[in-house]
Amino acid sequence: MNKHIASMLLGALLLNVGCSAIMSEKGFITQDKQVTQFNTEYIEKLAQSLPQHMVNQISIDGDEQVSLKGLFIDNPNSHTLVFFIQGNGMKVDPDSLAVLLTLSQLGTDIAIFDRRGLGASNGQATIANLLTDAIQELTFIRHTYQPDKVIVHGYSLGSFIAAQLVKNQAADALVMQGSATNVDDWIATKIPWYMPFLTVETPESFKLVDNQEVVSKFYQGPLMVIGAEKDDQVPAELSEKLFLASQSKIKSLIIVPKANHGEMLNSAKTMQAYREFLARI
User: Fold this and answer.
1) What is the pLDDT of residue 199?
2) What local confidence, expressed as pLDDT, does residue 73 receive?
3) How far apart are CA 150 and CA 216, in angstroms?
4) Which residue pairs from 53-62 have beta carbons closer than 8 angstroms and sit at least 24 positions apart in sequence?
5) If we measure between CA atoms, which residue out of 38, 17, 168 comes closest to residue 100?
6) How far does the signal peptide extend, from start to end residue (predicted)?
């Protein structure tokens, strides 16, 4: 999620836009000015930190001459794969090193991509083409590595892509970390108390990706929701609301005490709960 939205809304008010602010895809979705390939030292550091795994660079040719670059981290003893979809502006190199090392504790394979327009992947991102790319990535993962089980794990903005992905594509489990219910609920939690009359105009594309709608009406497979008690970007109350809305028979909720938006997986209890969740699938 974009942690600067409160400042954006206040700025809009101060600039005499009246009592409304306009939120656009282009302004919200972080976009790099140029492509930056994975650093060799980064790949070597990741491989050295995971001596029981094999780290492979992968590339998919998407539409509009887009090349999607990522990593497949192979645990030779696993036939379960976690497909991790990052948050807004989060690159594989260098931003995902810590999360990859943490997720490796699950003992699964891991697949991760730089999304369109960020890091090593070129193009211009929109909500629509991020979903198209995720479908293509999931298809590639299944065809190439043929895992027995695929867990789609979406973090922050990535949770919206993950939810839309499992809405229409088969997945063995869904993990939603730092996730809002929908854009309207999220914006309502970000408007300061001293701006009660401010309204935010959002594009229709944002309203179409509704996590609460997916878990309440479409997805009924295993679900794990991870929130953080001190999250100032996506309040834990939205994670709780998602969990309560879910119709899944196998579901788990963990609100990590004293953690902020980026610290949820740092807790040993979180990772233990994650392993227990995978064992139930």
Assistant:
1) 53
2) 98
3) 21
4) 53/104, 58/111, 58/113, 58/140, 58/144, 60/113, 60/136, 60/137, 60/140, 62/116, 62/123, 62/132, 62/133, 62/136
5) 38
6) 1-21
Question: Does the pLDDT of residue 5 top 80, yes or no?
Answer: no
Nearest 5°: CA angle at 94, between 165 and 45?
Answer: 110
**Which pLDDT value is given to residue 195?**
44
In 90-230, beta strands by DSSP E: 109-113, 149-155, 173-177, 199-201, 223-228
Query: What SS3 class is residue 144?
Result: helix
Could you tell me if residue 3 is left (phi over 0), alpha (psi between -120 and 50 degrees) or otherwise beta? alpha
Beta-carbon contacts of 178 under 8 Å, excluding residues fewer than 6 positions away, are: 1, 87, 155, 156, 159, 226, 227, 228, 231, 233, 234, 239, 261, 264
CB-based contact 237:231 (threshold 8 Å)? no
Using pLDDT thresholds of 50, 70 and 90, give the confidence band for residue 205. low
Instruction: Confirm if 68 and 116 have CB atoms less than 8 A apart.
Output: yes
Which CATH superfamily groups domain 36-181+210-280?
Alpha/Beta hydrolase fold, catalytic domain (3.40.50.1820)
CB atoms within 10 A of CB 268: 8
Q: Is pLDDT of 219 > 80? A: yes
Task: Name which of 51-60, 170-179, 190-199, 206-215 the model is least confident about.
Answer: 190-199
The region of weakest confidence among 26-35, 44-53, 98-107 is 26-35
pTM of the predicted protein model: 0.88
Domain ranges of the chain: 36-181+210-280
